[in-house]
Write a structure and sequence with these properties.
With 320 residues, this protein is of the alpha/beta class. The protein has two domains: 192 residues, Rossmann fold (3-Layer(aba) Sandwich), CATH 3.40.50.300; 67 residues, no CATH class. It contains nine helices and ten strands. Strands 6-7-8-3-9-10 form a six-stranded mixed sheet, with helices on both faces. A four-stranded antiparallel sheet has the order 2-1-4-5, covered by helices on one side. Helix 7 links the parallel strand 7 and strand 8. The structure holds adenosine-5'-triphosphate and magnesium ion (MG). Magnesium ion binds next to helix 3.
Protein backbone atom coordinates (compact mmCIF):
# COMPACT_ATOMS: atom_id res chain seq x y z
CA UNK A 1 0.00 0.00 0.00
CA UNK A 2 1.37 3.41 -0.94
CA UNK A 3 1.02 5.53 2.18
CA UNK A 4 2.13 8.80 0.69
CA UNK A 5 1.64 10.30 -2.73
CA UNK A 6 4.93 11.74 -3.95
CA UNK A 7 4.69 15.45 -4.61
CA UNK A 8 6.33 15.83 -7.98
CA UNK A 9 6.64 19.60 -7.67
CA UNK A 10 8.25 19.55 -4.23
CA UNK A 11 11.21 21.81 -3.63
CA UNK A 12 13.47 18.78 -3.12
CA UNK A 13 12.32 17.21 -6.39
CA UNK A 14 13.02 20.47 -8.19
CA UNK A 15 16.41 20.69 -6.57
CA UNK A 16 17.22 17.16 -7.67
CA UNK A 17 16.00 17.94 -11.20
CA UNK A 18 18.14 21.04 -11.37
CA UNK A 19 21.26 19.16 -10.29
CA UNK A 20 20.62 16.02 -12.37
CA UNK A 21 23.36 15.06 -14.81
CA UNK A 22 20.83 14.41 -17.56
CA UNK A 23 19.24 17.32 -19.44
CA UNK A 24 16.80 18.81 -16.95
CA UNK A 25 13.20 19.40 -17.78
CA UNK A 26 13.26 23.17 -18.33
CA UNK A 27 9.64 23.60 -17.20
CA UNK A 28 10.15 21.66 -13.96
CA UNK A 29 13.33 23.57 -13.13
CA UNK A 30 11.73 26.96 -13.76
CA UNK A 31 8.53 26.19 -11.84
CA UNK A 32 8.43 27.57 -8.32
CA UNK A 33 6.45 25.35 -5.93
CA UNK A 34 3.26 27.02 -4.70
CA UNK A 35 3.24 28.86 -1.38
CA UNK A 36 1.47 26.76 1.26
CA UNK A 37 1.92 29.14 4.20
CA UNK A 38 2.07 32.91 3.91
CA UNK A 39 2.45 35.23 6.86
CA UNK A 40 2.31 38.96 6.25
CA UNK A 41 3.01 41.62 8.85
CA UNK A 42 1.94 39.26 11.64
CA UNK A 43 1.92 40.69 15.15
CA UNK A 44 1.17 38.79 18.33
CA UNK A 45 1.09 40.40 21.76
CA UNK A 46 0.47 38.81 25.12
CA UNK A 47 -0.82 40.92 27.95
CA UNK A 48 -0.37 39.64 31.48
CA UNK A 49 -0.29 41.30 34.91
CA UNK A 50 3.40 42.03 34.24
CA UNK A 51 2.68 44.03 31.10
CA UNK A 52 2.53 43.43 27.38
CA UNK A 53 5.03 41.28 25.47
CA UNK A 54 5.47 41.68 21.71
CA UNK A 55 5.96 37.96 21.02
CA UNK A 56 5.96 38.50 17.24
CA UNK A 57 6.41 41.77 15.41
CA UNK A 58 5.88 42.32 11.72
CA UNK A 59 6.59 38.76 10.64
CA UNK A 60 6.67 38.03 6.90
CA UNK A 61 7.26 34.41 5.97
CA UNK A 62 6.42 32.22 2.99
CA UNK A 63 6.82 28.44 3.10
CA UNK A 64 6.52 26.66 -0.22
CA UNK A 65 5.33 23.16 -0.97
CA UNK A 66 7.91 20.52 -0.10
CA UNK A 67 10.25 22.94 1.64
CA UNK A 68 12.07 22.15 4.85
CA UNK A 69 12.29 25.40 6.79
CA UNK A 70 14.00 25.68 10.17
CA UNK A 71 13.39 28.45 12.69
CA UNK A 72 16.17 29.18 15.15
CA UNK A 73 16.54 31.80 17.83
CA UNK A 74 17.12 32.29 21.53
CA UNK A 75 14.63 31.24 24.16
CA UNK A 76 11.59 33.50 24.23
CA UNK A 77 12.03 34.95 20.73
CA UNK A 78 8.64 33.71 19.58
CA UNK A 79 9.41 30.47 17.71
CA UNK A 80 6.61 28.47 19.35
CA UNK A 81 4.22 31.39 18.98
CA UNK A 82 4.97 31.55 15.26
CA UNK A 83 4.39 27.81 14.91
CA UNK A 84 1.14 28.12 16.88
CA UNK A 85 -0.13 30.84 14.55
CA UNK A 86 0.49 28.53 11.59
CA UNK A 87 -1.05 25.57 13.44
CA UNK A 88 -4.14 27.70 14.07
CA UNK A 89 -3.70 27.46 17.84
CA UNK A 90 -2.86 31.15 18.31
CA UNK A 91 -4.56 34.10 16.64
CA UNK A 92 -2.49 36.99 15.36
CA UNK A 93 -3.42 40.43 16.75
CA UNK A 94 -2.86 41.89 13.30
CA UNK A 95 -1.50 40.93 9.90
CA UNK A 96 -2.54 37.94 7.83
CA UNK A 97 -1.78 34.23 8.18
CA UNK A 98 -2.79 32.21 5.14
CA UNK A 99 -2.69 28.55 4.20
CA UNK A 100 -3.12 27.94 0.46
CA UNK A 101 -4.28 31.54 0.13
CA UNK A 102 -7.05 31.21 2.75
CA UNK A 103 -6.98 32.67 6.27
CA UNK A 104 -5.96 30.23 9.00
CA UNK A 105 -8.87 30.19 11.43
CA UNK A 106 -8.01 27.12 13.50
CA UNK A 107 -6.25 23.74 13.43
CA UNK A 108 -6.84 21.49 10.41
CA UNK A 109 -6.00 17.94 9.30
CA UNK A 110 -3.55 19.18 6.69
CA UNK A 111 -1.25 20.46 9.49
CA UNK A 112 0.12 18.13 12.19
CA UNK A 113 2.07 19.42 15.18
CA UNK A 114 4.82 17.49 16.97
CA UNK A 115 5.80 18.95 20.32
CA UNK A 116 8.95 18.70 22.44
CA UNK A 117 7.44 16.00 24.65
CA UNK A 118 5.69 13.22 22.78
CA UNK A 119 2.05 13.61 23.82
CA UNK A 120 1.02 9.97 23.46
CA UNK A 121 -2.02 8.39 25.08
CA UNK A 122 -0.41 6.42 27.94
CA UNK A 123 -3.20 3.80 28.05
CA UNK A 124 -2.75 2.88 24.37
CA UNK A 125 0.10 0.84 22.86
CA UNK A 126 2.38 2.36 20.21
CA UNK A 127 0.30 0.76 17.44
CA UNK A 128 -2.99 1.88 19.03
CA UNK A 129 -1.66 5.44 19.32
CA UNK A 130 -0.98 5.44 15.59
CA UNK A 131 -4.28 3.67 14.83
CA UNK A 132 -6.08 6.46 16.64
CA UNK A 133 -4.77 8.91 14.04
CA UNK A 134 -5.91 6.57 11.25
CA UNK A 135 -9.50 6.16 12.51
CA UNK A 136 -11.03 8.69 10.15
CA UNK A 137 -9.23 7.46 7.05
CA UNK A 138 -9.32 3.67 7.50
CA UNK A 139 -12.54 2.10 8.81
CA UNK A 140 -11.51 -1.56 8.58
CA UNK A 141 -9.78 -2.60 11.83
CA UNK A 142 -7.35 -5.09 10.27
CA UNK A 143 -6.29 -2.63 7.57
CA UNK A 144 -5.91 0.08 10.17
CA UNK A 145 -3.66 -2.12 12.28
CA UNK A 146 -1.58 -3.00 9.19
CA UNK A 147 -1.24 0.67 8.26
CA UNK A 148 -0.22 1.52 11.84
CA UNK A 149 2.52 -1.11 11.73
CA UNK A 150 3.65 0.25 8.37
CA UNK A 151 3.92 3.75 9.85
CA UNK A 152 5.80 2.42 12.87
CA UNK A 153 8.23 0.63 10.57
CA UNK A 154 8.98 3.99 8.92
CA UNK A 155 10.49 5.02 12.23
CA UNK A 156 11.93 1.52 12.86
CA UNK A 157 9.57 0.68 15.69
CA UNK A 158 7.40 -2.12 14.28
CA UNK A 159 8.88 -4.48 16.87
CA UNK A 160 7.49 -2.28 19.63
CA UNK A 161 3.97 -2.02 18.22
CA UNK A 162 2.44 -3.58 21.34
CA UNK A 163 4.53 -1.70 23.89
CA UNK A 164 2.97 1.02 25.99
CA UNK A 165 4.57 4.50 26.08
CA UNK A 166 6.03 3.95 29.57
CA UNK A 167 7.85 0.88 28.21
CA UNK A 168 9.61 2.98 25.55
CA UNK A 169 12.59 5.34 25.79
CA UNK A 170 12.16 9.09 25.23
CA UNK A 171 13.55 8.80 21.69
CA UNK A 172 11.23 5.88 20.90
CA UNK A 173 8.22 7.79 22.20
CA UNK A 174 9.17 10.73 20.01
CA UNK A 175 9.40 8.35 17.02
CA UNK A 176 5.89 7.04 17.78
CA UNK A 177 4.73 10.68 17.86
CA UNK A 178 6.29 11.22 14.43
CA UNK A 179 4.64 8.03 13.10
CA UNK A 180 1.31 9.17 14.52
CA UNK A 181 1.66 12.63 12.98
CA UNK A 182 2.51 11.04 9.61
CA UNK A 183 -0.50 8.72 9.95
CA UNK A 184 -2.72 11.80 9.85
CA UNK A 185 -1.27 12.21 6.35
CA UNK A 186 -0.83 15.96 6.76
CA UNK A 187 0.67 18.04 3.96
CA UNK A 188 2.53 20.10 6.51
CA UNK A 189 4.43 18.95 9.59
CA UNK A 190 5.02 21.56 12.29
CA UNK A 191 7.72 20.39 14.67
CA UNK A 192 8.45 22.34 17.86
CA UNK A 193 11.86 21.34 19.27
CA UNK A 194 10.96 17.66 18.92
CA UNK A 195 14.44 16.43 19.84
CA UNK A 196 15.30 18.92 22.59
CA UNK A 197 14.85 16.41 25.42
CA UNK A 198 16.87 13.64 23.77
CA UNK A 199 20.50 12.60 24.14
CA UNK A 200 22.91 13.48 21.34
CA UNK A 201 23.08 9.98 19.80
CA UNK A 202 19.31 9.53 19.67
CA UNK A 203 18.94 13.02 18.26
CA UNK A 204 21.44 12.31 15.47
CA UNK A 205 19.55 9.13 14.55
CA UNK A 206 16.28 11.02 14.41
CA UNK A 207 17.82 13.84 12.35
CA UNK A 208 18.73 11.22 9.75
CA UNK A 209 15.27 9.68 9.99
CA UNK A 210 13.44 12.97 9.55
CA UNK A 211 15.55 13.81 6.47
CA UNK A 212 14.79 10.38 5.00
CA UNK A 213 11.06 10.74 5.68
CA UNK A 214 11.02 14.24 4.21
CA UNK A 215 12.84 13.12 1.07
CA UNK A 216 10.59 10.12 0.54
CA UNK A 217 7.26 11.83 1.26
CA UNK A 218 7.78 15.36 -0.06
CA UNK A 219 6.03 16.81 3.00
CA UNK A 220 6.40 20.48 3.82
CA UNK A 221 8.15 20.82 7.18
CA UNK A 222 8.55 23.76 9.52
CA UNK A 223 10.96 22.81 12.27
CA UNK A 224 11.64 24.90 15.37
CA UNK A 225 14.88 24.45 17.23
CA UNK A 226 17.36 26.45 19.28
CA UNK A 227 20.09 24.13 18.01
CA UNK A 228 21.79 25.71 14.98
CA UNK A 229 23.52 22.45 13.97
CA UNK A 230 20.13 20.75 13.84
CA UNK A 231 18.74 23.57 11.70
CA UNK A 232 21.62 23.47 9.20
CA UNK A 233 21.50 19.67 9.02
CA UNK A 234 17.80 19.67 8.18
CA UNK A 235 16.78 22.91 6.51
CA UNK A 236 16.55 24.19 2.95
CA UNK A 237 16.38 27.53 4.70
CA UNK A 238 17.27 28.63 8.19
CA UNK A 239 15.29 31.56 9.56
CA UNK A 240 17.04 33.35 12.43
CA UNK A 241 14.81 35.15 14.88
CA UNK A 242 15.64 37.96 17.25
CA UNK A 243 13.97 38.65 20.55
CA UNK A 244 12.03 41.42 22.32
CA UNK A 245 10.24 41.94 20.07
CA UNK A 246 10.23 38.61 18.20
CA UNK A 247 11.31 39.40 14.65
CA UNK A 248 12.92 37.65 11.70
CA UNK A 249 16.51 38.86 11.57
CA UNK A 250 17.99 36.84 8.78
CA UNK A 251 17.27 34.05 6.37
CA UNK A 252 19.98 31.69 5.15
CA UNK A 253 19.56 29.27 2.22
CA UNK A 254 21.30 25.94 2.85
CA UNK A 255 22.40 24.28 -0.35
CA UNK A 256 24.71 21.64 1.12
CA UNK A 257 24.17 18.17 -0.40
CA UNK A 258 21.91 15.71 1.42
CA UNK A 259 21.77 13.62 3.46
CA UNK A 260 23.61 15.83 5.93
CA UNK A 261 25.03 14.87 9.28
CA UNK A 262 25.97 17.06 12.23
CA UNK A 263 29.59 15.95 11.97
CA UNK A 264 29.99 17.10 8.32
CA UNK A 265 32.64 19.87 8.25
CA UNK A 266 30.58 22.05 5.87
CA UNK A 267 27.52 21.73 8.11
CA UNK A 268 29.61 22.67 11.13
CA UNK A 269 31.16 25.68 9.33
CA UNK A 270 27.79 27.09 8.28
CA UNK A 271 26.35 26.49 11.75
CA UNK A 272 29.28 28.38 13.22
CA UNK A 273 28.58 31.38 10.95
CA UNK A 274 24.91 31.43 11.94
CA UNK A 275 25.84 31.13 15.62
CA UNK A 276 27.96 34.27 15.28
CA UNK A 277 24.86 36.19 14.16
CA UNK A 278 22.72 34.72 16.91
CA UNK A 279 25.30 35.44 19.59
CA UNK A 280 24.45 39.16 19.46
CA UNK A 281 20.84 38.29 20.28
CA UNK A 282 21.85 35.92 23.06
CA UNK A 283 24.20 38.55 24.54
CA UNK A 284 21.39 41.12 24.32
CA UNK A 285 19.08 38.90 26.38
CA UNK A 286 21.81 38.11 28.92
CA UNK A 287 22.47 41.85 29.35
CA UNK A 288 18.75 42.64 29.73
CA UNK A 289 18.36 39.85 32.28
CA UNK A 290 21.30 41.02 34.39
CA UNK A 291 20.13 44.67 34.24
CA UNK A 292 16.67 43.57 35.33
CA UNK A 293 18.07 41.36 38.10
CA UNK A 294 20.11 44.33 39.35
CA UNK A 295 16.96 46.45 39.70
CA UNK A 296 15.43 43.70 41.86
CA UNK A 297 18.51 42.86 43.92
CA UNK A 298 19.44 46.44 44.91
CA UNK A 299 16.18 47.21 46.79
CA UNK A 300 16.29 43.74 48.36
CA UNK A 301 19.82 44.40 49.72
CA UNK A 302 18.69 47.71 51.15
CA UNK A 303 15.98 45.92 53.09
CA UNK A 304 13.04 46.87 50.86
CA UNK A 305 11.90 43.38 49.81
CA UNK A 306 8.41 44.40 48.78
CA UNK A 307 5.37 42.28 49.52
CA UNK A 308 5.74 38.55 49.13
CA UNK A 309 2.32 37.27 48.11
CA UNK A 310 0.71 34.90 50.59
CA UNK A 311 0.28 31.64 48.61
CA UNK A 312 -2.96 30.89 50.48
CA UNK A 313 -4.46 34.36 50.06
CA UNK A 314 -6.18 33.46 46.76
CA UNK A 315 -7.05 29.86 47.54
CA UNK A 316 -10.72 29.04 47.64
CA UNK A 317 -10.46 27.68 51.13
CA UNK A 318 -11.26 24.11 50.09
CA UNK A 319 -7.81 23.20 48.85
CA UNK A 320 -8.48 23.97 45.16
N1 LIG B 1 0.34 32.33 26.65
C1 LIG B 1 1.24 33.29 26.87
N2 LIG B 1 0.96 34.30 27.72
C2 LIG B 1 1.83 35.30 27.95
N3 LIG B 1 3.02 35.40 27.35
C3 LIG B 1 3.37 34.41 26.50
C4 LIG B 1 2.49 33.33 26.21
N4 LIG B 1 3.09 32.51 25.30
C5 LIG B 1 4.29 33.07 25.05
N5 LIG B 1 4.45 34.22 25.75
C6 LIG B 1 5.62 35.12 25.71
O1 LIG B 1 5.92 35.35 24.33
C7 LIG B 1 7.32 35.32 24.12
C8 LIG B 1 7.63 34.27 23.08
O2 LIG B 1 7.37 32.99 23.61
P1 LIG B 1 7.59 31.65 22.79
O3 LIG B 1 7.12 30.52 23.63
O4 LIG B 1 7.00 31.79 21.45
O5 LIG B 1 9.20 31.63 22.66
P2 LIG B 1 10.17 30.52 22.07
O6 LIG B 1 11.04 31.18 21.09
O7 LIG B 1 9.38 29.33 21.63
O8 LIG B 1 11.03 30.15 23.37
P3 LIG B 1 11.69 28.73 23.78
O9 LIG B 1 12.88 28.53 22.90
O10 LIG B 1 12.09 28.96 25.22
O11 LIG B 1 10.65 27.66 23.64
C9 LIG B 1 7.95 35.08 25.48
O12 LIG B 1 8.37 36.32 26.00
C10 LIG B 1 6.85 34.49 26.33
O13 LIG B 1 6.98 34.88 27.66
MG1 LIG C 1 9.23 27.32 22.29
Amino acid sequence: MALFAQQTTSASALRQASTAASTPDAEAVDAVPPARIQLEAVNVQFTTRNGTTAALQNIDLTVREGEFVCLVGPSGCGKSTLLSVIAGLQKANSGSALMDGKPITGPGPERAVIFQEAALFPWLTAAQNVEFALKQRIRNKKERRAAAIEHLSMVHLARFADSYPHELSGGMRQRVAIARALALNPDILLMDEPFAALDAQTRDLLLAEVQRIWQSTGKTILFVTHNVMEAVTLGDRVICMGTRPGTIKQEIAVTLPRPRAVEDPDTARLAQRIMTHLRDEINKIAQEESDHAATLIAPARSGDTGDIPDPLANSMGDGI
